[in-house]
Amino acid sequence: MTIKKLIIPVLLLAALASCGRQGIGSSIGGELTGVPVGKVWNEPTPYNMVLVTRGSYQMGPGEIDSLWGIDIPTRGVSVDNFWMDEAEITNSQYKQFVFWVRDSIIRERLADPAYAGDDLFKITEDEYGDPVQPHLNWNIPIPWTRNTEEEEAAINSVYITHPITKKKMLDARQMNFRYEWFDATEAAKRQNRLNPQERILNTDITVNPEEVIMISKDTAYIDGEGRIVNETLTRPLSSLYDFVHTKIVNIYPDTTCWVNDFSNANNEPYMRNYFSHPGYAHHPVVGVSWEAATAFCEWRTMFLRRGLQR
Fold first, then answer.
1. Which pLDDT band, with edges at 50, 70 and 90, does 24 fall under?
2. C-alpha distance from residue 134 to each of 100, 111, 123, 126, 197 (Å)
3. What is the pTM of this model?
4. What is the Cα–Cα distance from 252 to 94, expressed in whole angstroms?
5. What is the mean pLDDT of residues 25-51?
6. Distance (Å, rounded) from C-alpha 108 to C-alpha 174?
7. Pairing of strands 244-250, 176-182
């Protein structure tokens, strides 16, 4: 009986010690070893991209100005690792972005009661029936064939017919991409804290608790005539949502750049076929504005993150 009574406490202590080694506050011999890392994370290699390793260089002239003898100071600049596409973005790759925007518009209209009114194309609650931020359901395929009259109307709403050639084509004016971003840097600055008492954290600077903090917020909307309106509002700080900015950009390439930018060349065939003909699918995309290129990068980041979460 005595032996059995001793075995039970010993086993209990061993179990507790085992749990302690796996706990957050565990250590080896009282040393600071950090918390368990858990699952090892490795950065995925993006498709068709190459890694540019970190480096540094001296910004500025390498020699004194030979004419005036002015010694312009230089400064060191360091650049961290980053990924870069192996080649230019092709028509096929950019068309994936255009088709994603097209399909998102169609899905919105398939869920719209004014068109098909199919609730399956928009998710409004989670698996437990609790309401969530409404978002599109990309798991339901678009009924390109064998569709109802309402579904066909929703699909055809993003297309137009050329008045001269009678060719059915995508309505470039509707290819608008809307995206948002949170300016974490501005939100983290002391002078932008919602609580005035937090504006003096870790600093000797005194602040006026009655001061009205003004912020600049980018917002965008489409007016009644279908025009994109991007504007910057200046208003008093009221919540963290003041640091959420919105942008709407028409992302369809300007195919007329072939004749507008090269007036002395016979580029009409390129204007008509370069972005649409499969023979140019792997050629670099042209006619993309800076704003559209930025929108493409935002979409590409979002698209990759969603893919990694699956």
1. low
2. 18, 11, 6, 10, 36
3. 0.81
4. 9
5. 81
6. 13
7. antiparallel
What mean pLDDT comes out for the span 7-34? 58
Most confident of 16-20, 113-117, 203-207, 288-292: 288-292
Token pair in block for residue 16: 């507790």
At 115, which amino acid appears? Y
**Predicted pLDDT of residue 37:** 81
**Looking at this protein, which amino acid is placed at residue 203?**
T
Alpha-carbon separation of residue 186 from 144, 207, 233, 240 (angstroms): 45, 18, 15, 10
CA–CA separation, 299 vs 247, rounded Å? 12
The letter for the amino acid at 29 is G
Domain ranges of the chain: 91-174
Q: Which residues contact 172 (CB under 8 A, 6 or more apart)?
A: 250, 252
**pLDDT given for residue 15 in this prediction:** 47
Residues making up the chain, counted from first to last: 310
Given the structure tokens 């980018």, which residue do they identify? Answer: 218
Q: Give pLDDT tens digits for 123-167.
A: 999 888 899 999 999 999 999 998 999 999 999 999 999 999 999
